[in-house]
Amino acid sequence: MGLVVSTLAMVAGFTVAVLASRVAVTGAGHLVARTRLPPFVIGITLVALGTDLPEIANSVVASLQGLGDVNVGDSIGSVVTQMTLVLGLMPLFGGALLLSRRRTTVVGVGIILALVLGAALMQDGDLARIDGGSLVASWVLLSFAVWRLGDSGEAQTPERADGGLARPVVQLAVGLAVVTVGVMAAIWGVVNLAEAAGVPVFLVSFFGASVGTSLPELLFSITALRRGHAEMAVGDALGASMVDATLSIGIGPLIAPTLVSTALVERAVTVAVLVVAVVVGLLVVRRRHTVGTAVVLLLLYLGVYVVLLA
Fold first, then answer.
1. Predicted local distance difference test score (pLDDT) of residue 155
2. In-domain check, residue 236
3. In a designed cystine with 229, which of 59, 76, 143, 224 is the match (CB 3.0 to 4.6 A)?
4. How remote is the C-alpha of 103 from its chain's centroid?
5. Is residue 156, in this structure, part of any structural domain at all?
6. What is the pLDDT at residue 119?
7. Residue 185: what pLDDT?
8. Phi, psi at residue 65, to the nearest 5°?
9. Could you tell me if 82 and 244 are in contact, meaning their C-beta atoms sit under 8 angstroms apart?
10. SS3 assignment for the chain
């Protein structure tokens, strides 16, 4: 009976978090409409933050409960999931995509550097406030670098929309609050299932939780592609991976320091760095993201399971 309740809590919690994230993203989108920012910039910053709310909430809640492995496992697992599964499914729903070599390279290098920094900070098995602050600050620096170095001369900007800010702000705030509640329920279910199965919580979070918390990115990207917003979709996937490697890991320990399993972190970071390097290298060389490259990314995602579970 306990396993059934835990499973229901996990599924229901993630479902609520996903639905609430869409509300929050809608509010963020309406706020963006008042600013005249390019689609890629919107995707890699505000939309990425919106779709990454489950991971961010997971980081805070898990850290408050002393579950550092849940935070780090979910965040690093989400980097891998978004760089392989989410990006891999895009051409299957939106057709071939033309990517900017410069932007892809800048974001990819930034994600790898952030993962290496995180691994170095976690070498002692502890995520202190200063470690969390360093990771959050690295997201700010990476975002600035992407804006400056990743600019491809995009001149078109959306027309500024009229209207007040009250409704979008309320949507964003309510969405974030509900996401937090949903993730709290999901984390409780994940931890109970891991304990019952005798599986390390880190691995359960890396594989199971990361898929659940990455659903907002997948749903948003597919919707954006079908509506002709390819740049925003790609920006969201890349930006969310950047958030997961930095802000998502760091925000929880910044509030409540936690312990982590060093050996599992090192293994996961090594795999994640290799995955990001392969994906970025492939997309930069090919530039066109087609069904062929999509198959490679999806096979890479499956290969990660084999490596870590071994």
1. 42
2. yes
3. 224
4. 18
5. no
6. 94
7. 81
8. -90, 5
9. yes
10. CHHHHHHHHHHHHHHHHHHHHHHHHHHHHHHHCCCCCCHHHHHHHHHHHHHCHHHHHHHHHHHHCCCHHHHHHHHHHHHHHHHHHHHHHHHHHHCCEECCHHHHHHHHHHHHHHHHHHHHHCCCCEECHHHHHHHHHHHHHHHHHHHHHCCCCCCCCCCCCCCCCHHHHHHHHHHHHHHHHHHHHHHHHHHHHHHHHCCCHHHHHHHHHHHHHHHHHHHHHHHHHHCCCHHHHHHHHHHHHHHHHHHHHHHHHHHCCEECCHHHHHHHHHHHHHHHHHHHHHHHHHCEECHHHHHHHHHHHHHHHHHHHC
By DSSP bridging, strand 97-98 and strand 258-259 are unpaired
**pTM for this one?**
0.81
**For residue 107, what pLDDT is reported?**
93
Total domains in the fold of the chain? 1
Closest C-alpha to 178, from 24, 10, 7, 67: 24
User: What stretches in the chain show pLDDT beneath 70?
Assistant: 1, 28-29, 31-33, 35-37, 150-165, 180, 208, 309-310
CATH number at 95 reads: 1.20.1420.30
Does 251 fall in a domain? yes
Identify the pLDDT of residue 149. Answer: 73
- Return the structure tokens found at 306: 């084999």
pLDDT of residue 244: 94
Site of tokens 């309740």: 5
Give residue 159's pLDDT. 52
Residue range(s) defining the domain that contains residue 36: 2-151+166-309
Residues 6+ apart with CB under 8 A from 291: 91, 92, 96
Distances (CA, A) of 286 to 22, 108, 244: 32, 15, 26
Residue 44 lies in a domain: yes
- What residues pair up with 154 in beta bridges, in sequence order? none
